[in-house]
Specification:
The protein is α+β, with helices and mostly antiparallel strands. About 50% of the residues lie in helices and about 10% in strands. The two termini are about 45 Å apart.
């Protein structure tokens, strides 16, 4: 049983404190970032939920004081490359998108800021990193609410003195192919270890831990709160030692299935998954491939000069190494300041008693000097030294650029027994690493490609960048930690090589007697332009996957599109795009578009699909568009469909004559709206995404378009020209399938004027056009082509071939798997048969010969929805496994079901947020007038807007169930993807 996702999650912000602003920066972040967000949002929600941000705690214990528990951070001073951590409870991923910096404190009415005020508000150079993700667990939301209440309430707070933040990367060899099944095992194992170590509550009453499934390059963030720092180090040490065998000793259920499903078993050289020796080898695999840890002290306690007096015994045996990046020639000034500071704190002791100030260590790297403690390790000495930074009058940064503190915990290494041997060359782990090398591009192949580019007269700069692409790809794909994100690039790299080889092959024909089509050959400029576009796609996709990974974890988050790391999200949607591509093009054609994040609109080319950040966090917008984006390049990969569409148009030459007879249609044709590519793809989406439900298609058509900022004028009104084109496109599709868009079907009142102006004209033009024989023949031909394509897709998924009964058998498998409590089969058959009678599926006869296949397909989709909607509502993820048989069909069903779920939750009504034309702010009167009958409104500036926090929480839960389902699906499919690539590499061992 999968864990339930929740309506709340954690937001962790790690930041360096700007120099000389040690006290001001945390205060400003609290007041002008967190508190400002609370004020602004609470003002919007005050009439629908006055206590939105507040909680009253446990009433049974008479804890009746209220406290802001959402967006109210716990602050810890941390040691390492960051200085402070803000840990808060949130219910919106949009918050993670806010630039982590305080807003201006000045009131908008006060325009006369002094230079001193401006200087105070400008932050000195600093960096930050934001971590967020999903929290799972049946009662986790209540647990989190109580946790933050107990630590934020005004009286008798449970405040842990120390915190450990540990980011855990699960071993890809075990995770790929098992996904959530293994993740859940690991999560349960972590909680058992933490619970066992923190069990001594009598001397550590506030000890507790939190876990979050991260969107970043690692899967789990573990946060440990304790008054005993040695327990934090013990937990981290214990976790780093864990093997799969340790999990099996505690809970052996499903371990065999995890082993057999893992990619370690998938690349087994002997193909003998039952071999006991090899299973034992996999059992010895470590659970975690990497960990990154931060240790910190409660900020408010640490800045208190009396901090150590509140520590039992007044001493902590914690060794701290403080490294000073000193400006050249200023070491003596630094030593002088430290000396005076320590004398001021304790005049009875010489500073040399604390630190060896006269003989610091000169060290290499960014940091120049390390001043060692003289006596036994005592955290009190570190605290004394840190008072320098909390003293606003200290001018230490006149001489120091940066200070870095590392905390060292003692650890005893266990000596390995003599019979403990490293993995052999036949071990699954060794074989797996060896197999990964087959996915890399060999130096010989890189040199060969470079020689071909040189022969093709490609510029030196582009040749160099192409070479760099291959080496960067190799660095990612050969990294056992990161390779799971770089399998996304394998199809792209293959496309680059094929383009270069084909261009070179065509060029060689100039010097032979082979026939050569000069018109289709690329000029040097055209070829370079194609390569430059591919380079741009690679750079965008590569950069965001490498940002803040374990190799560059502590750099500033400089990406402009996303303010937190999202490697998991990107690779998840890449898995979806790959599955849809395989469904329509076949697995032998490696079409795996890179998912990018570099634009505010959804755009795609052959090599990449760009989504804006708010689409990535709202899967419904991806679901409605991803098929369109994948199919945009069908002319390159579906030669049969390309030729058929061309033949249809050529046969009915009178089609364009009919268009030219109507002024409006002629205008639409010139503007590219009567485009057979558009029509073909829209017809496919109508079948594949919406299961031939025109109301569902119409709803998401407007929901997507109305949150597209490019559709609007500066004053906030939708572009009339854009609206006219979109309305025509929808009405043309509906008319093609004998549906009627009615005169009262305007999606939102804001469009009524445009609707009234253009609806009748468009309706009349389309109706007259469809009376012509030429138009009907072309549309009929196109519909037949679409149904043929959908039949081949259905056939592939249902395994129908010549026997429809096999499709029925698969339907029965799904029915058994889903155990539905939905409408009986006869109702679904009647519904689908009616669609047949209305010529929705197949125009002009011969439908009943293939009707059973579509009944089976449609029933699978409907049953999936029937059994999924309550799971969406409860936040339960739907996990793909081998019993579903067909991954493409599963992802189709998941997309359709979630779109239909939100459609029905919103009662099929499109809602658009109204904004003030002058300042762009949401209109409060409009917010107050909205009822609870809709989940959200689409926002013309992009994304969604919620009026009611309860509906926001409901959506947050259902959306998380989808994100987790997709992540699991992607991890399962990664195994098949890697194995497919390996087969292709083996079949083309020369790399050509």
């Amino acid at each position: 049983m999968p864990l339930q996702t929740n309506e709340l999650t954690l937001h962790i912000a790690l930041a360096t404190i700007p120099r000389n602003q040690e006290l001001a920066y945390p205060k400003r972040i609290q007041e002008n970032f967190y508190d400002d967000y609370i004020r602004q949002t609470n003002e919007n929600y005050k009439n629908s939920h006055e206590s939105y941000f507040k909680d009253t705690g446990n009433q049974e214990n008479n804890k009746t004081n209220t406290v802001n528990i959402l967006y109210n951070p716990l602050k810890y001073y941390i040691f390492g490359n960051y200085d402070i951590a803000f840990i808060s409870l949130v219910d919106s991923y949009k918050f993670a998108q806010k630039l982590f910096t305080p807003k201006s404190k000045s009131d908008e009415n006060n325009k006369n800021e002094s230079e001193e005020d401006i200087d105070h508000e400008v932050l000195n150079p600093h960096s930050f990193q934001v971590l967020t993700g999903m929290v799972s667990g049946q009662d986790e939301s209540n647990f989190l609410r109580n946790f933050f209440f107990e630590r934020l309430r005004d009286k008798d707070c449970k405040i842990s003195t120390f915190v450990g933040i540990c980011n855990l990367k699960i071993n890809n060899g075990l995770l790929v192919g098992t996904g959530y099944f293994f993740y859940k095992k690991v999560l349960e194992h972590i909680k058992k270890i933490v619970s066992n170590i923190l069990v001594q509550q009598q001397d550590d009453p506030s000890a507790i831990s939190l876990t979050m499934q991260s969107f970043s390059w690692f899967e789990i963030s573990l946060i440990i709160f304790s008054d005993k720092p040695e327990r934090i180090s013990k937990i981290i040490t214990k976790l780093r030692e864990q093997k799969l065998d340790n999990i099996a000793q505690i809970d052996s259920s499903d371990i065999d299935d995890i082993i057999k499903s893992s990619i370690y078993a998938g690349v087994d050289a002997t193909n003998n998954k039952e071999d006991k020796y090899r299973i034992d080898q996999i059992m010895q695999s470590h659970i975690f491939a990497d960990t990154h840890s931060y240790f910190g002290v409660n900020y408010d306690q640490f800045k208190d000069k009396e901090f150590m007096k509140n520590i039992p015994g007044g001493k902590l045996d914690l060794k701290a190494e403080i490294e000073w990046q000193v400006k050249p020639g200023h070491l003596a000034n630094l030593v002088d300041i430290i000396t005076k500071h320590l004398k001021h704190i304790d005049p009875t002791k010489e500073p040399e008693k604390y630190y060896n100030l006269k003989h610091p260590y000169l060290i290499t790297g960014k940091t120049d000097y390390y001043i060692a403690e003289k006596e036994s390790p005592d955290f009190g000495n570190t605290h004394k030294l840190f008072q320098i930074f909390f003293d606003e009058e200290t001018r230490i940064y006149d001489y120091v650029k940066k200070v870095k503190t590392n905390i060292q915990f003692q650890h005893e290494v266990k000596i390995l027994p003599e019979n403990d041997k490293p993995f052999s060359e036949n071990s699954p782990q060794f074989v797996f690493r060896k197999k990964l090398k087959q996915l890399a591009i060999s130096p010989k192949q890189i040199n060969d490609i470079n020689s071909k580019l040189k022969a093709l007269k490609v510029s030196r700069q582009i040749r160099s960048k192409i070479t760099k692409v291959f080496y960067n790809y190799n660095n990612g794909i050969l990294d056992s930690i990161l390779f799971v994100y770089f399998t996304d690039f394998t199809g792209f790299i293959d496309s680059v090589i094929k383009l270069i080889n084909k261009t070179y092959s065509d060029w060689k024909k100039l010097f032979s007697d082979e026939p050569f089509d000069t018109e289709s050959s690329l000029s040097v400029k055209d070829f370079e332009d194609s390569l430059k576009k591919m380079l741009s796609d690679f750079e965008e996709a590569y950069e965001i996957r490498m940002l803040n990974c374990y190799q560059f974890e502590d750099i500033s988050d400089f990406d402009l599109d996303f303010n937190s790391s999202i490697q998991q999200i990107l690779t998840t949607y890449s898995g979806v795009a790959t599955s849809v591509s395989n469904l329509f093009y076949g697995e032998t054609v490696v079409v795996a578009p890179l998912i990018q994040l570099n634009d505010n609109t959804t755009v795609a080319n052959y090599f990449s699909i760009n989504y804006n950040v708010y689409h990535l966090l709202s899967p419904e917008f991806v679901f409605f568009t991803i098929t369109k984006e994948v199919l945009n390049q069908y002319k390159r990969d579906d030669e049969y469909i390309k030729k058929r569409i061309s033949n249809i148009i050529q046969i009915e030459k009178g089609f364009y004559s009919e268009i030219s007879k109507d002024e409006f249609l002629a205008e639409m044709h010139v503007s590219g709206q009567i485009d057979f590519d558009y029509l073909y793809i829209d017809f496919i989406r109508f079948y594949f995404i919406c299961n031939c439900d025109i109301k569902l298609f119409e709803y998401w058509f407007w929901m997507y378009n109305l949150q597209n900022a490019s559709m609007y004028e500066k004053v906030g009104i939708i572009s009339e020209e854009h609206f006219k084109k979109e309305l025509f496109r929808l009405m043309f599709l509906a008319k093609s399938y004998n549906y009627l868009i009615g005169e009262n079907d305007c999606p939102v009142p804001e469009l009524q004027n445009y609707w009234d102006k253009h609806f009748y004209k468009i309706s009349k033009s389309i109706s007259e056009f469809f009376k012509s024989t030429e138009a009907l023949l072309v549309i009929k031909g196109l519909k037949e082509l679409v149904i043929l394509k959908m039949f081949t897709v259905t056939d592939k998924q249902m395994d129908i071939k010549d026997d429809p009964a096999t499709g029925e058998a698969l339907y029965e498998v799904w029915k058994k798997k889903l155990n539905p409590q939905g409408p009986p089969t006869t109702i679904l058959q009647e519904s689908l048969t009616k669609k047949a009678a209305d010529n929705i599926f197949f125009p002009g006869g011969n439908f009943y010969t293939i009707l059973p296949q579509y009944i089976n397909w449609g029933q699978c989709l409907e049953y999936f929805y029937t059994t999924s909607k309550e799971k969406f509502r409860k936040g339960q993820c739907i996990l793909y496994d081998s019993e579903y048989k067909k991954p493409g069909m599963f992802i189709n069903a998941l997309m359709y079901s979630y779109l239909k779920f939100l459609y029905e939750e919103n009662e099929g009504k499109v809602h658009l947020l109204r904004r003030n034309w002058e300042d762009g702010h949401p209109l409060k009167c409009f917010i107050e007038s909205e009822q609870d009958d809709n989940i959200y409104s689409v926002d013309q500036t992009g994304g969604t807007f919620f009026y009611n926090p309860k509906r926001l929480n409901s959506y947050f839960k259902s959306r998380n169930s989808i994100l987790q389902s997709l992540w699991h699906f992607a991890m399962i499919q990664k195994k098949d993807q890697v194995e497919t690539f390996l087969k292709i590499k083996s079949a083309n061992s020369d790399g050509k």
